[in-house]
User: Fold this.
Amino acid sequence: MARNNQPQFICQECGAVHRKWLGRCEGCGAWDALVEEAPLTAGPGSSAGARGRKVMLSTLDSAEPPPERARSGLAELDRVLGGGLVAASAVLLGGDPGIGKSTLLLQATAAFAACGLDCLYVSGEEAAAQVRLRAARLGLEKAPVRLAAETNLRDILATLDTERPDLVIIDSIQTMWLDSVASAPGSVAQLRAAAHELVSFAKRRGVSVVLVGHVTKDGQIAGPRVIEHMVDCVLYFEGERGHQFRLLRAVKNRFGPAGEIGVFEMTGSGLAEVPDPSALFLSERGRPAPGSVVFAGIEGTRPMLTEIQALVAPSSLAMPRRTVVGLDSGRLSTILAVLEARCGVAFAGQDVFLNVAGGMRVSEPAADLAVAAALISAREDVALAPETVVFGEISLSGALRPVSQRENRLKEAGKLGFTTAMLPAGGRPSREALPVPGMRLQEMADLAGFVEAILGAKGAG
Ligand code: TYD
Ligand code: MG
Assistant:
């Protein structure tokens, strides 16, 4: 057991354990992220070498009912959780500092409490008075939520054991510390031990816990990534600074679909739900302008229309600018290359700016065609026909590839008053597919045909 007492060096970014200090983590490549931590030693009660007990074995099929779920009444949150909060589950809510995690959770706790759950909010970051002040701002001061400002996890667990609430919020897990772990609060060792204690408490006592974790880039405190595997559900709260929209995204969910998103808007009196995000992201659209294209996308299980904007301007730089916000810049380079190689539309000597309106992030390959449309439209200074949506994937050969959930995309576009859709030909209609009434489909097999269709509008106009 001597090996156990050797120092170990843990990467504060990815949690990889190293025997000696290195300038660069071998696991994730982060620089200057290794910190020496005392190894976890076996507690006094453990008996190494003793024989284990036989564990119970059972079958896959069971007569147990599906897990009990509590709904908060905040539809956006309930959907992201997979239809409500599962009893005795552990949820991790990650996000940048200041993005609105505490605000969201205070509102959610109040909503759960209003539905009859016994809720406890433990703040390790703010004093009770500060949380009360926020509650007053949100108009929730009368909500039956019990509050504690504490960071000592031993005391918190003892309290939870006697109080037995239905739901506990730990804001944030990085501030919690256990006296049995000999490293500073916020370190990987503390974070892991604290999360482990809380998650096993949740399972043992049937209490749901929500852990808040700050995403950190500078490696000063361990990020929530190192505890993602311990919890049942990982949610990230994200948004662009300067935009009021916030997206709650399920990255992992043992009780529901991952990739589901909920949309909120940060207002002066807290977060407001946005049940119809397409209408919101498109609200600034006036008459069709060159370089602006509406993309019919799917976020999680929900269709969502977003506006993709491009600007193409002559460059005075030897290496023209490629600036992308809300999309993958590698994807832009690929699309530019395919346009040049397969369609003869060159962007050399031009600065290209690409942006998703409203602070949204689009990661679907189905956005390719909309990006190409925005680029061509901006370059040729020709607007697409009004009320047109675009979606489809571009392959390197210049062929257009059909994408999933065609009908859902078309239906959402139809609902918002769009009348034309430009899309790849040959999409396999789903079994119960019905043509969307009033929607004119312009199906195209390759990118060259697509470019012609857009430029045709220029010739005609
Ligand atoms: P907060 O929930 O404290 O963020 P986190 O817990 O993720 O660090 O939210 C911080 C920001 O939210 C802060 O900049 C102010 C803003 N805010 C509003 O705009 N309106 C509100 O009603 C509240 C409570 C906060
Ligand atoms: Mg906070």
About this structure: The radius of gyration is 26 Å. The mean pLDDT is 87. Residues 1 and 96 are 40 Å apart (CA to CA). Residues 101-102, 125, 171 surround magnesium ion (ligand 2) (CB under 6 Å).
